[in-house]
Amino acid sequence: MSLITIALAKGRLQDASLDLFGKAGISIPQDLLDSRRLLLEDTSGRYSFVFVKPGDVPVYVEYGVADVGICGRDVLIESAADVHEPLDLRFGYCKLVLASRPETAALGYNPLVATRVATKYPRVTADYFQRHGVPIELIGLSGSVELAAVLGLAHHIVDLVETGRTLRDNGLVVVDTIAESTARLIVNRASYHLKRIAVMALIQLLREAVRTVAQAETSQPEPIPAMD
Amino acid sequence: MSSSLSKIPPGVQYIFDTEVRFRRWVERQVMDVFDGWSYSEIVLPIFDYADLFALGMGKIQAEMTYRFTGRDGKMLALRPEMTSLVARTVATRFRDRHRPIRLSYSGEVFRWDEPRPARQHEFHQIGLEHVGSDRLEADTEVLIIAIEALQRVGIEGFTITLGHVDFIQGIAERLGLNQDACRQMYSIVDRKETEEFDLFLTPYAGENTRESLCRLTTLAGKKEILEEAKSLVTNDRSRSALDDLSRVYAIAEAIGIDEHIDIDLGDVGGLDYYTGLTFKIYAPRLGAALGSGGRYDNLLSQFGRSEPAVGFSLWLDWLAQLSASRNTAPGMGTGNISTLEAAGDLASVFKEASRLRALGTRVEIV
């Protein structure tokens, strides 16, 4: 029975997460990764991994079925999960932005008219507009959020932006940056104490791996990325 | 059945069969432990004026109550917790009683809440309050009672984290933080965001101090944490908090319960309510705390009589779920049941049933 169960987000952050664990000396045999098993043990047998949808990582960790997890800060603030957040893993950088068509952006949002906002991040969006005292009509979507602004379903969208290319390609502009996001290590509050020694050891391993990556980046500047 | 009849409001509970029997057993064990330490049970009203809870819990928390209007037009609320009710009683009707006052309670509380681990809208709280003593023996007493209760009901592998609000507040004072900065710091510490905390501290402290403060508030551990903290923190308020924690820890060691205790100097939950020692109880298979408590010396003054108090509460629902005694608790089996057939001469059937009942036998008329 492994000591620690780790929830990883499938998709955008999965490969970088596994890379980081690799650098920390924790790896999953390739044949297991290729299989369809949902619960995978690492080679040392000390860690179990589960791969879940990004938005579900905070849920697994908050309920304690996973002791720790890796997810983007965007997902974390949207979930409002009550967990510890001891480590910024420094990869998966992106921004949560408010965007719209240029003509709407030029108007700003009129606080006297209910602005219609489409998003996959209803909590973050509601909080943001509440802070600004602007009433909104919230439209919850599960994907292709840009389309809502393009077709006029919504005046604004709140969405995740990595390079900004999707926005540009669809003729949308950023009105405001709501939050910046990188991958975070999160820890269940009970596990933090009940499995303290194992959890602390894992945090330390990952902290050193993050440091090693950062040092490698400063000593070897990355090639200039091609313009997108 | 029409859909409105089969529909159940979110968060309420129906409990039956052996689950009820077991919960009653768990409840009796805990109340028996409390009784053994001379805490007398107080039965409290299910609802009271909403203002009372706002005074006790703070306005934001009180918004979680289920509220309704009484016949006199006053706003009432289902009790969201018991401590406010106890505090008001102590400050008024027990005004002239000899201190300390030891009271225990057991009953359902009601809170509107978003779905979160270990939170229902209706759940059963068992707890106690020790009022009138600001001394460390009162803190130690309630901690030891909590451990005895957990052991009695068969909670295995639990950890109680011990913290002290004066530790972090002493640091905030020392740094000269305003209210907003304090709140920001507590939120960072609460989530153990080590790097964020380091960034936050940058304008206030040098690198070495920052490093040790970050480590102290994000690490948890045994008494070595206290020793390290003492060598690093110089303000009186934090040091006095560390002294309190060391003394409690030393007693725990002396009676052999220190294996259950973890020091958590970064515990800042409930900072606007607690005033001294705080603790949270964790056990395997539950991602959240199954009980918590601490010293709250400011609450009673809200009810017109300033005096110190300390207490804690446990969630019966989680005690019952996590208990390892489910199959071994006395009375959990069906036991010997004498079955009597309701046929023929009913008078003699019930006469026989009564005779068996007088002997203490369980009977079932079929």
What would the keywords be for this entry?
heterodimer; A: 228 residues; alpha/beta; D-Maltodextrin-Binding Protein, domain 2; 2 domains; six-stranded mixed sheet; five-stranded mixed sheet; 10 helices; 37% helix; 27% strand; elongated; B: 366 residues; alpha+beta; BirA Bifunctional Protein, domain 2; 3 domains; eight-stranded mixed sheet; three-stranded antiparallel sheet; 14 helices; 13 strands; 42% helix
Overview of the structural elements:
- The complex is a heterodimer of chains A (228) and B (366).
- By secondary structure, chain A is an alpha/beta fold.
- Chain A has 2 domains: 4-93 and 182-219, 3-Layer(aba) Sandwich (D-Maltodextrin-Binding Protein, domain 2); 94-181, Periplasmic binding protein-like II (D-Maltodextrin-Binding Protein, domain 2, 3-Layer(aba) Sandwich).
- Chain A has helices spanning 14-23, 30-34, 57-62, 73-79, 102-107, 122-131, 146-151, 165-169, 189-194, 196-219; strands spanning 4-9, 39-41, 47-52, 68-72, 84-88, 94-100, 115-119, 136-140, 156-161, 173-181, 183-187.
- In chain A, the strands form 2 sheets. Chain A has a 6-stranded mixed beta sheet with strand order 2-3-1-4-11-5.
- The mean pLDDT of chain A is 91.
- Chain B has 366 residues and is an alpha+beta fold.
- Chain B has an 8-stranded mixed beta sheet, with helices on both faces. A 3-stranded antiparallel beta sheet of chain B has the order 2-4-3. Chain B has a two-stranded parallel ribbon with strand order 12-13.
- In chain B, helix 9 packs antiparallel against helix 10 and helix 10 (207-218) runs antiparallel to helix 11 (223-232).
- Classes of the chains: A alpha/beta (228), B alpha+beta (366).
- At the A-B interface, strand 5 and helix 9 of A face helix 9 of B.
